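Translate sequence into structure tokens.
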Amino acid sequence: MGKMKNQASRKRNQVVRRTCPCLIRAIADRGLKVCLMPCLGLEDAIGTAVRQACYIVAEKLRPKVTVLGCAPALFVGAEEDVIYVLSYPVVAIEACPYACGSRMCQRYGKEPDAVIYAHEFFRQAGIDLSGESNYILGEIGQRAAELLAEKIVETVDNLLLSEVRKVAKVSSEQRAKGSIKSG
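Result follows.
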């Protein structure tokens, strides 16, 4: 358990150093967001940890720049969730072999912009959730969700920065064309 705590602490410090809070606020002010699409993963605690990690990101770590997609809502075509998937970059966080998050995006003709495979993430981190309930996470499950949330934040930040770079590139190209025309 100490190992997991140290990894989470180290990871959190890396993310904080890499992403300036002012930049996140500026991105939020421009309406850029990322859709988090958690897999349902109802078979074991990994799915529960994935959903909890997404709530941590959406409610605490990046509330102004993330939206939560919902697989059942997408399945029935709920307008709000369809708009999220089609309008924003999507991070699919997979918890089962069915890849629910990715499949829901593909249902609407879009590939996720990033995919995090929770089984692989937890395996590499040395986290075993086999003793955890798939309904309510215990201490290990909650710590696992927090560690995964940091990975999601890192992915969200990278996608947001990529979007900002795209906008900046288009703006500079438009300015360059404008100066050529007027010159």
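Note: The mean pLDDT is 85.
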